[in-house]
Design brief:
Belongs to the peptidase S1C family. This protein is α+β, with helices and mostly antiparallel strands and about 210 residues long. It folds into two domains: about 90 residues, Pdz3 Domain (Roll), CATH 2.30.42; about 100 residues, PDZ domain (Pdz3 Domain, Roll). It has four helices and 16 strands.
């Protein structure tokens, strides 16, 4: 397996013109959690080097030695600055989680979906910091063709926010199994735009 430095958190963007990297989620028991990093912290420096965005931060982390220590300066609660000493962990590259949707009763029929990771995001040309479920490809002639596109980031199905393929499967299952006509709401991020589809089961039509 391929290994690389690992800090145990997912990252998000903060609104322009602010600089830094938002901590979206902290993995329990991971290096960031043990160092006292918290969700909603904003990373503003690593070893006294200013951090302007996630690309710079991830590049700097990738150069660290596994087992070595780094000092993260974070802004907490909008104002207070806190320094956390983090020991860099080791991440093992695992097989990508992929789902090919073939059920014709599924409004996502014809899509190949994947759980976002730095490796998959890099292959698709997406921000390495993004997490969740992304459309990898759409089959020609499928229910999904003309609606969904590669790189669409699936945010929500019905009232369920989607963070993993497991979330997506659980959210879509009642729709697929329904014996009566059903309309499901699916929200996706396409670049900087959020699109909401309202799809009838088995129908390629959508209302935006």
């Amino acid at each position: 397996m391929t290994t690389r430095p690992y800090i145990g958190c997912t990252l998000g963007k903060i609104p322009y013109p602010d600089k830094g990297v938002l901590i979206h989620n902290v993995m329990k028991g991971g290096p960031a959690s043990k160092a006292g990093v918290m969700a909603k912290d904003v990373i503003i420096a690593l070893d006294d080097c200013p951090i302007s965005d996630s690309d710079r931060f991830l590049m700097m982390i990738s150069l660290q030695d596994i087992g070595g220590k780094v000092r993260l300066k974070v802004r907490r609660g909008g104002k207070r600055e806190v320094e956390c000493v983090l020991r860099v962990g080791e991440w093992e590259k695992k097989k990508e989680k992929i789902l090919v949707v073939k059920d014709e009763q599924n409004p996502l029929e014809g899509t190949t979906l994947g759980e976002m990771s730095p490796t998959l995001n890099s292959r698709l040309g997406l921000d390495a910091a993004l997490s969740g479920v992304v459309v990898i490809r759409v089959a020609r002639g499928s229910t999904a063709e003309g609606l969904f596109q590669p790189k669409d980031h699936i945010l929500q199905v019905g009232e369920q926010k989607i963070a993993s393929l497991e979330d997506l499967t659980k959210a879509i299952e009642p729709v697929v199994k329904s014996k009566t006509p059903t309309v499901v709401k699916i929200r996706v991020a396409r670049g900087e735009v959020v699109i909401e589809f309202r799809l009838s089961v088995g129908s390629p039509r959508a209302k935006l």
